[in-house]
Amino acid sequence: MAYRKPKQSPGYKRNEQSALARQIQADLQKLGMTQKELATASGMPEARLSRILRSGKVRLTEQDINQLALGLRKTTAERDNLRYLAWPELYEIDKALKRRDGCVFLVNCELAEQGLPLLGSNFEE
User: Fold this and answer.
1) Which of 30, 38, 48, 110 has the most CB atoms at less than 10 Å from its CB?
2) Residue 52's closest CA among 76, 80, 28, 78?
């Protein structure tokens, strides 16, 4: 029995890869690694890595980023770049920490301008 590709609705677009997924793919190519080799080196299940690379619609954790960084033989600065790709708001927060802003409002203004998630308030409880 011949298998055919499933029909797709007109205008259907495949989920585009996230910036993090594109970076990981580039690193894999640069290192000459396969997805399976990265999964083994990073101690991450192949299915999870596949989901990260396919659509990026995965709830990432710091542990995921650290495991990927170790598997891809990244430095701490390169690991931080993976973090910024996964969570762009961290870049603005880290910039504010370096400036020693000391004000969540100022950081939230910068985050809002870029359409990124804002820092919450501890007084919302």
Assistant:
1) 38
2) 28
